[in-house]
TrEMBL record, chains A, B:
The keyword Transferase applies. InterPro entries: 2-isopropylmalate_synth_dimer, AIPM/Hcit_synth_CS, Aldolase_TIM, Citramal_synthase, LeuA/HCS_post-cat, LeuA_allosteric_dom_sf, PYR_CT. One of its GO terms (molecular function) is 2-isopropylmalate synthase activity. The lineage of its organism: Bacteria, Pseudomonadati, Myxococcota, Polyangia, Polyangiales. Gene3D superfamilies: 1.10.238.260, 3.30.160.270, Aldolase class I. It is an enzyme of class 2 (transferase). It catalyses: pyruvate + acetyl-CoA + H2O = (3R)-citramalate + CoA + H(+). It comes from Sorangium cellulosum (strain So ce56) (Polyangium cellulosum (strain So ce56)). This is Citramalate synthase. GO terms for biological process: isoleucine biosynthetic process; L-leucine biosynthetic process. Pathway: Amino-acid biosynthesis; L-isoleucine biosynthesis; 2-oxobutanoate from pyruvate: step 1/3.
Amino acid sequence: MNPPHNGAEQGARPSDRVDVYDTTLRDGTQREGISLACEDKLSIARHLDAFGLTFIEGGWPGSNPKDAQFFERAKDIEWKHAKIAAFGSTRRASLAPEDDPGLRALLAAGTSVCTIFGKSSVQHVTAVLRTTLDENLRMIEETIAFLRAHGRRVIYDAEHFFDGFALDRSYATETLRAAVRGGAEVVTLCDTNGGSMPWQIEAVVAEMKAALGHPLGIHAHNDGECAVANSIAAVRAGARHVQGTINGYGERCGNANLCAIIPNLELKLDLRALPEGALRGITELSHYVAEVANLSPDDHMAYVGRSAFAHKGGVHVAAMRREPASYQHIDPALVGNAMRTVVSELSGRGNLLSKAEEFGLDVPTGAEVEVLEQIKEREARGSSFEAAEASVALLLRRSSPGYKPPFRLLDFKVIAGQREGVGTFAEAMIKIAVDDEVVITAAEGSGPVNALDGALRKALAPVYPAVRDIQLVDYKVRILDGRDGTSATTRVLINSRDAHRQWSTVGASTNIIDASWHALADGIEYGLTLAAREPQQYTSTLPASEVA
Amino acid sequence: MNPPHNGAEQGARPSDRVDVYDTTLRDGTQREGISLACEDKLSIARHLDAFGLTFIEGGWPGSNPKDAQFFERAKDIEWKHAKIAAFGSTRRASLAPEDDPGLRALLAAGTSVCTIFGKSSVQHVTAVLRTTLDENLRMIEETIAFLRAHGRRVIYDAEHFFDGFALDRSYATETLRAAVRGGAEVVTLCDTNGGSMPWQIEAVVAEMKAALGHPLGIHAHNDGECAVANSIAAVRAGARHVQGTINGYGERCGNANLCAIIPNLELKLDLRALPEGALRGITELSHYVAEVANLSPDDHMAYVGRSAFAHKGGVHVAAMRREPASYQHIDPALVGNAMRTVVSELSGRGNLLSKAEEFGLDVPTGAEVEVLEQIKEREARGSSFEAAEASVALLLRRSSPGYKPPFRLLDFKVIAGQREGVGTFAEAMIKIAVDDEVVITAAEGSGPVNALDGALRKALAPVYPAVRDIQLVDYKVRILDGRDGTSATTRVLINSRDAHRQWSTVGASTNIIDASWHALADGIEYGLTLAAREPQQYTSTLPASEVA
């Protein structure tokens, strides 16, 4: 049987085409700490579709009422590229498919594609399912045939396939044959426990391809930190369907990371997984999904991480200026990412000038030398500008003639303590100059920095209402040279954002409150200067990947 | 030439043995955001050595005065397992090795092993080094021969080898032959830009093994998320020396992660990389290095992550109860990790009882249950006891009948600020009970925590002169759940020491001053209770490696 084939745009030869199956919304949410509301799932699904994936697994309607709701809402959406798939298991032992509540829920989901998982391992059949080997084969075949009879396309996920194959290869192969007989268009071999090694995957996939002559897929987990390599190894052995999640989210160590697999397929194996040109959207997609899942994006992820093309070492930066390809395996623009030079004490003028270009700033001739001196001097006292690009931008702006800072700090005082019967408390008083007028105000907070933040916003809001749109999203503290104990220098990094952008600022002092105060004020000053200009003018001041 | 061979304990056949070369302290610190003080580097090196690695690269003495200081200090340490290696480059073009400042710095480091990197790629030789292909070959051979003549073992790192090989395989091979002629004991093929795929690595390593018949190593980066698979592929092709970093720290997307490679080598490839039984320490090592680098450990790391064996899905948890191996690829105890079901934190009384034994404490029957409750309750509010064993010991002591704390905290108040013309200031007032007498005192400091520390010592010194011997050696702050900005929970870890020992305590609060106050007070209480007993009795309460 030749199943209907999705996608295959842009005239790729069939063997060049890999179908990508995203399970972020189902397997991805098994990650500890992720919980997506139905609205979140719909929003992610829309982005995955616009990006150009072939299949989007929306959930397991039989196991979870929230998932059933997702499918209800998904029916009303016009999907551009993707087919929505609903996930479920083979029917229960000794139950007709039409009487199985899980399968009824699957049909009710109303998707054109259903994905069914079944057991491949004799151990799982007997010890977990507690049924017979023959009944398991019937469960697989009949479940798939039932869904096909109801007009569904069916993808079969062979759970624990590689472990099952190692235990009893002939039985494991029989389970796949049952799925093919039932009418599955693709048979996906799952490394459910994630501990297989690439050469094992490659050998088994090649053997199954020869034995079945049927389209194969791969579903890998990252328990040996080899999920990406395992997925690619399966494709080299002939699989043309790859399951994974955005950012590798998933239970335990995660699922195979599509944000690395897709660029590897397209750029290293010269296969087609996406519509023409879509790959450039992958960095933004990765950050978007992290944002919705309420997780900090991993800066060091391959291809899509904020640091994936960041260069810090002096030797590297010098070499990059002589030969741009010398420390990059691909052109970062191919995946919508950008090269960054990390500004630090090791920087030269060149670093700073290319930074000014990145920020779209006109720097008066020679001013970069002065700013570099300030950076070096402040780094010597404990600041670090490599993660505080907005502080660098402020230094560059302040060096421009005609720049007028929105406010100036004069004094601050913070009182924090604990009193028996009262508990802890924190209060801040501040004095700042706004438009040459001195403002003194105070606020309470959950801690001293929170109180300072509150007082600063209160003082600024009457003149700069935009301060209300600026939010603090992260606050990091590092003690430098810890051997001085509590009198060591403290470095504070603050991430702020408004509706469009996110930026980071730094402060350093032996007094942690003082360091926080300066990072806080820089963060707000930068946000106010952005807000004072046309938003679209500044949308490009930070790489696209920075913009949520 | 047959170079001296390190290690090979426990009678492994030579071909079963893989030398692990750690470069966390050099290549790992190229990661954006990592900066290690000399003391941090020494402490990590001691842990790596105790863990049983073969080589520890301490730094690049020719490029960085901080690294030179590390090697100076390292000379006085008796290393148990590891050889310390110093890193450097081939001599400059047209300069005799003895006149090259980098090579002089390398000799001054005084290590028995030197690692030299050189260029393999014609493009890099001409475009970056800007010298001739022949001169580059001489630079490689003469540099290594020079170090050999000074009695050093030499490891050669062939930078950009795989890219260079793709451009001009014959020249790339020639550079390795030059290294062998110079006397390098191992020739390490580096995937410097990190974009190679496992099958490419495997083919090239196999070809070089056949061509050179010389020990080979691998140094991989993670730009295609394949660094672990690439390292393992090289070993399968015959490499027996693997370079990487703890937790995969490194520039851009990181270096190859030893915390996944080592378990893969030992458990999946059945090779020996560590002394017998050492593998069980790898989870602790991973977390320890993250702690010192002030980075949150990645919970989802293969083998060592807190979630690596955590089960959340209902199906998985049910299956695990029927068949423990059903969703785990290995027994987590093999790597010192533990299975967790995510719903209920099953930390176990046993854990705590063995902790009490470690500390030499008599815990009254049943008290561990109560202490466990306290730990869970405090962890839920943001503390982390993993790196704060002295806080655990204090909880156990406080549960012993007859334990009388040396003091009790009543109130504190801190005032910190900045005033024009005056600069920053910080003052603390405290009220504590010492021997049922209430003491109120105050002190100034360079910051609010320093002022609190000063006040506490001042209050205690008349009754407990031993407080003068207790020093604070490190102070670390981590903001948990950074998304709440300045109102997030703050965790403070403090390391204290006296003449004999070093210990760590923890505090957590939304108010950073309050969190610091509790960690500070615990640190001093623990020190005073130690001082009240025979010093030698407690010398072994913390591993020797913890004592600076």
